[in-house]
Amino acid sequence: MYAGTQWTMGGMDVPEPRRLEYTEALRRLRIMLGDLAEQTSQIVLDATTAVTGRADTAGVHAAVACLRDCCQDLDEDLVLLLARQNPVAGDLHLVVAGLRTAAAVQRMAELAGHIAATADLRAPAVVVPVGLRPTLSQLGRLCAEQASSLATAICADDPAAAAWQVTAGDEPIDRIHRRLMAALTDPGWPHGIQQAVDLALLSRYYERYADQAVTAARQLVRLRWVPSLSDSPDDPGLPAGPDTAADPPGGPAGGPVRSPGRTG
What we know:
Helix content: 55-70%
Order of helices and strands: EEEHHHHHHH
Strand content: under 5%
CATH topology: Methane Monooxygenase Hydroxylase, Chain G, domain 1
Number of helices: 7
Number of strands: 3
CATH architecture: Up-down Bundle
Distance between the termini: 80 Å
CATH class: Mainly Alpha
CATH superfamily: Phosphate transport system protein phou homolog 2, domain 2
């Protein structure tokens, strides 16, 4: 006998075949979205190399354009998947989470593209002064780690733990951003207004990249991203954790960013 989204056979509830097909399709889309999130990790690393050295940015811009197209295709697939299924609250949660996460991943890639575009504007010169290149390189690595943690959360059966890693990774980036801004606005800043403006924008791009990753991770947990045949799972939340995350060893997040050439 058919009952809602399940068949009753021999006294045992069995998911309707269409429901199984829907769940499998959604899992495939999750894998695709996780792969796109992982791609943003490499994109931001490549963009960081461009502003701290003389790397070619053409690959970054091509990767951003390709990822944007993929995210738009994914959006259409999610909406089409919902249109083919009798929607219940759980379905809407899943599709909204997927759509919002895809939008955040696309925005992360675009912000990395802005970082690379800054290198284009100043070529053949290198945007970042020698003394601050390790700081920008660390920002790039931390953002890449956040993107990788987001990819893990997207594909995990229990996204809460990986989502917490994304959230915890935001604090070191914010601290570096604040200290870098303090160095740029210091009256003793030795590199001129143009480089100060470029670095302020770059730091802001990294901060916004991290914020997008955190927003996406929280959406995954709040909107119950993991599909369930029961449509009535408990509403999970982010696990409790420390107010701040420890900085990576040897990084400038634990101390002030100093302008190169200054002492004291």
